[in-house]
Every structure is written in structure tokens, then in C-alpha cells.
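A quick aside before the break. I want you to see a complete sequence-to-structure record at least once, exactly as it would be stored in a machine-readable document. Don't worry about memorizing anything.
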Amino acid sequence: MPLFFRRSILKQSAVGFGYLAAMAMLQDERAAAAAIDPLTPKYPHFPARAKRVIFLFMKGGPSQVDTFDYKPELQTRDGQELPFDKPRVQFAATGKLLKSPWQFRQHGESGLWVSELFPNVAKHVDDLCILSSVHGTNAAHGGALLKLHTGSDNFVRPSMGAWISYGLGTENRSLPAFVTICPTLAHGGVKNWGSAFLPAWTQGTPIGNASVPAEQARVKFITTDRLTRDEQRRRLDLLAEINRQDLEQTGPNAALEARISSFELAFRMQGEMPRIQDLSDESKSTIEMYGINDKVTSDFGRQCLMARRFSERGVRFVQVTHSDDKVQWDQHGNLKAGHAEKASEVDRPIAALLTDLKARGLLDDTLVLWGGEFGRTPVAQGGDGRDHNPEGFTMWMAGAGVKRGFKYGATDEFGYYAIENKMHVNDLHATLLHLLGMDHLRLTYRYAGRDFRLTDVAGHVAHGVLA
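That is the input. The structure line, written in C-alpha cells, reads:
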């Protein structure tokens, strides 16, 4: 290479060398900070499309053919036999084709079909990326919930919120990286937001549970009348000093270090958490929009508003669970009354959340994910119900990084099996991580002699949904 050419290259790239050096120094600083406080924000593997996630979990399994997956052929052939084989493994015995009792209409500029069960969400259809070909591996609630939340339906594994916390940390050191609002204690319970073998600080912080009204849901012992804040600080400092002396004698102790970190986080949360849960600073119009003054929508509306408040303050992963001690979305019979009741509780709050995030500019870097652990069969059970169906069901995403007003994949003409651009739950996880700037193949944790990841040995990014 000629000398003058090499000099030209050096001259033109001089600024680039400085940039590389600066990035290396910043990376070292971030690594050092993370060693002191594991909740410190971490760099993604590549530029992220989304900074945070709000997961709206519909426990029980909403029916795709009654919500977002319109099937004209199902309406036409109501009461006839399914013209192909049912799955080899089924949850229970089912009968003939059962049409949807609800009308579907096209909405927005995209013309996507939405059931009349969701009139308010339908107004936001041009912001939705509807995933019509999701499928799983388990027809039972327990296994399906664990598969969706942890990537495994037969082993104890870290939850997806824990993996995201481990990979990215939090944007607010006074709050957990992962919050789960009114989670269900059934069908896997704490495992669905647990950390398993990941560091303890990655697990979700539950606020109430499904049996507690959202208005009463609180982090336990977040306040105390026995000690002043200064007294608590002095006690924590003394405890930390004792623990550090112990670590000097015993060497690294992940459990003890995690406990020290949890004490410090709990202390910082005392000032931040009550302010977030106090809705008195919200406008009357916002409270009305979320339906918090309406008996039907009050509970889920409050959860959705809390999700927005946590997200805007830097919590990386917020889960909102629509569940109760009754039937949830699990209509094996009485489909019309059951799904109508459940949809009326969530439709207005979900639409409000999308409106609110968009108005605040948060939808540009927040990914909203909606769905249940599986869908339901297009064939009848118990006369007027539908059975569990993990073979093909619908979820949707909205916000950062995904195509808007777009339908991805398809089920067969009756909505039983995913057949086009099939998206396994592992693929869903891989895509979710990709949107957050993480390569699911690289986000690993070594435990018991092998490297683990959320998608284990499977998973492919659905590039077709990326904007």
C-alpha cells in the first residue's frame, strides 16, 4: 500500500480511534459500576429498538377466533365436523365446529380485523403488530404458563423478566428492574417471575397478587413507623460493614452479596415506591380514561396506569396480570358470557395505556406485549365452550421496533393450527430479546456445568415483525 494512502486513512479515521477508545473506557466504567451495583444499566449487544417491556398477561387463554383471528369459514361451517385431524394430545374431549358469537370488523387504515369484544383496542389497530401464528408445547395451564414465562415447561428456569433484568439492569437504581403487578399464585406461581439460578436481584418484585384488589396491592413492609430514615441508614451501614468483614474472611459469597444488595435496594425503594403507587398526582381525565372510577374496569385500569408509572421511571420489565379466583379467560363452557365479561374488564384500560404511552412519547421505546398462555379450540366443548389450544393462537405487540398495523403469520381456515410463519414461544422470546438489543444466543449464564439461555437450544428471531 502506498505511504501517502496509509497516511490518508489514518488522517480520516483519527476521530474514529478516539471514539473506540472512549467506548472502551465507558464499557470499563459500566462494568466497574455493575460490580458494585448489579442494577446498573448495561449496554445491549447491539442498538436496541426498545428500552423496556410492558407485558399484559391474560391468564386462562383468550380465544383467538373470538378476538383477533377472524375466520369466515368457521362462521359458515358452524356445527359441522372438523375436516382434518385434531391434535394427537388434547386437554379434553371436544365436538364440532363452533362459530364465534361476536361480529368482526375491519379497522383503521390497515384494515385489520378485530372482534366487537375489543371496540376500544380496535381504535389502536394501526399501532398493533398482531402475531397470528404463535404456538406452544403444552395444553395444560401450569406447563403453558411456565413455558411462556420461563421458556421451559418441565424444569425450573429463570423467568423472561429475570433474563432481561440480568442482561440490561435497570434505569432507576431506586426501583427493581422487574415488577409484576397482581401476579397469579397458581400454575407455577412464583416460578413465573422467579430468578431460579440467576442472581437473586433479577427476580420480579410482586406488588400484591391476583387475590388482592389492585387498590390494596402494595410491596410489603415498604414503610415503618418504628425507625427514622437516619436510624435505618445507620443500621444498614453497620450491617453492611459486618457483612463485608465476613466476605473478607470467607471470600466471594453470591447469596450474601445479593442479600446486601437487596437491603440497599429496599431502603431506596421506601422513598420511591409509595410515590409511584399514589395516583393523586394524576389528572381527573387520566383516571377517567383508564376507567378507574368504573367498577368493571377499575381493577385492571389501576394496574395498567401503574405499569405506565413504573415504566416511565425506568423499570425495565413490568408485567400486569389479568386474573382472579374465578374463571379468568378459561371458558370451557358459557363462552359468550365469560369472554364478554373478561374483555369488558380489560378493553378500555388497554386502550388507555396505548393512548397514554403514545401521548407521552413512551410508545417509541416501550414494547407492549399482550396475550395468554395459549388460545382455544375452534371446536366446541361442553356445548358452548372451547378447550385449550396451544397449536395456534394470537398475541400482539405494539410500540418500539415492530411493524404497525401489521398481521404476522396465520392459522388454518378454522384457526386451529399455526401454518404460516409459525412462531413458537421460543421464537417469541428470541424476538423480544432482539428488540431489546440482545442476541438470545449470547445472553447466557453458566450453571451446573453448562451455559443456559432463555431460549435454551431453540428460538429464531421473527425478522418479519421488525419495523
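Two observations worth writing down. The two ends are 42 Å apart (CA to CA). The CA atoms of residues 59 and 283 lie 30 Å apart. We'll return to this after the break.
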